[in-house]
């Protein structure tokens, strides 16, 4: 008699509705001949937005030298390009050693949380959020704690409500700015308040800024990293959205702020990066051209 194959208990609370049951139902309707407009996923290529030719050519020109594994953190030109971008934004304490290139930001969200969390550790996440943050916390045995970002407050967090959610088990604060899915662009006062809260309680700040170049209605994007001095700040971005290169799977996270307090954590992250060997090498050659070219 065959036993039923059981799945991991780690998946019990994991959801990812962007590609979940609703998306599956839409796919079934498409197969029946219905026209479906897919607004559930940020995939520019589906709507005819192409990767800039200069980025594509940079990958093609380096394809012949991209057959070997690279350093687990990524190729140096890509990491150095991220450093230059961060320095242009006022983050002066970041080097290429502080940058990790991943197979999209999605992989890096999982790795950075896996290196941090123990069972029961809490992570503050905006609601509504990009659901991978919630899923990755649950997948790594953490507890997602959602702070509301209501329409009445311009989809920005209420700092008092946020502070009330901090407990001794809280390890990190996730900031999504510009926000996915609401499109809110946080004010300087909001960001400064979030930084002050994180520094007061020793929380790691994970700032998802992959929509940093897609700003409307005169809004001003303010990166959070220059505001952070007394805790660790990880800034996430990549080629998928602004540069319309989702399929090439290239993202990065750069660490700044109080890196000295995080030696053990960064060593653990380096180990996890090594275990997956490296990220997509051909795609990494597009980073320097993307960040160094006309914006």
Shape: globular
What fold name stands as the CATH topology?
Aspartate Aminotransferase, domain 2
Instruction: Tell me the β content.
Output: 5-15%
* Mean pLDDT rating: 94
SSE string, helices as H and strands as E: HHHEHEHEHEHEEEHH
Count of runs of 4 or more consecutive helical residues: 9
How do the strands of the widest beta sheet line up side by side?
Answer: 1-7-6-5-4-2-3
* Fraction of residues in helix: 25-40%
The value of Rg in angstroms is: 19 Å
The level-1 CATH class:
Alpha Beta
Topology of this protein?
Elements: H1 21-31, H2 53-61, H3 76-88, E1 99-102, H4 104-116, E2 122-127, H5 131-139, E3 143-148, H6 159-164, E4 170-176, H7 188-201, E5 204-208, E6 232-238, E7 251-257, H8 263-275, H9 281-292
Helix pairs in contact: 2-9, 3-9, 4-5, 4-8
Walkthrough of the structure:
By secondary structure, this protein is α/β, with parallel strands linked by helices. It has one domain (64-292): Type I PLP-dependent aspartate aminotransferase-like (Major domain) (Aspartate Aminotransferase, domain 2, 3-Layer(aba) Sandwich). The protein is built from nine helices and seven strands, in the order αααβαβαβαβαβββαα. The chain has helices at residues 21-31, 53-61, 76-88, 104-116, 131-139, 159-164, 188-201, 263-275, 281-292, and strands spanning 99-102, 122-127, 143-148, 170-176, 204-208, 232-238, 251-257. Strands 1-7-6-5-4-2-3 form a seven-stranded mixed beta sheet, sandwiched between helices. Helix 5 links the parallel strand 2 and strand 3 (143-148). Helix 4 runs parallel beside helix 5 and helix 4 packs across helix 8. The radius of gyration is 19 Å and the shape is globular.
């Amino acid at each position: 008699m065959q036993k039923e194959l059981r799945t991991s208990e780690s998946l019990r609370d994991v959801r990812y509705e962007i590609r979940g049951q609703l998306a599956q139902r839409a796919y079934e309707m498409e197969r029946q001949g219905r026209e479906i407009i897919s607004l559930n996923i940020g995939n520019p290529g589906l709507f005819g937005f192409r990767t800039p030719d200069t980025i594509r050519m940079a990958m093609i020109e380096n394809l012949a030298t991209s057959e070997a594994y690279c350093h687990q953190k990524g190729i140096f030109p890509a990491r150095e390009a991220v450093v230059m971008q961060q320095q242009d934004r006022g983050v002066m304490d970041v080097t290429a050693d502080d940058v990790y290139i991943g197979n999209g930001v999605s992989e890096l969200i999982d790795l950075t949380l896996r290196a941090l969390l123990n069972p029961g550790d809490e992570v503050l996440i905006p609601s509504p959020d990009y659901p991978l943050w919630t899923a990755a916390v649950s997948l790594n045995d953490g507890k997602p704690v959602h702070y509301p970002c209501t329409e009445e407050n311009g989809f920005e967090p209420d700092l008092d409500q946020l502070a009330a959610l901090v407990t001794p088990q809280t390890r990190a604060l996730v900031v999504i700015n510009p926000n996915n899915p609401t499109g809110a662009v946080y004010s300087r006062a909001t960001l400064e308040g979030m930084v002050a809260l994180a520094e007061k309680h020793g929380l790691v700040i994970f700032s998802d800024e992959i929509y940093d170049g897609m700003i409307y209605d005169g809004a001003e994007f303010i990166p959070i990293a220059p505001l952070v001095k007394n805790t660790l700040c990880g800034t996430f971005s990549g080629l998928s959205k602004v540069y319309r290169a989702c399929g090439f799977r290239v993202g990065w996270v750069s660490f700044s702020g109080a890196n000295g307090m995080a030696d053990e954590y960064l060593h653990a992250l380096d180990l996890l990066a090594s275990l997956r060997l490296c990220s997509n090498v051909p795609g990494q050659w597009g980073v320097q051209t993307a960040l160094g070219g006309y914006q």
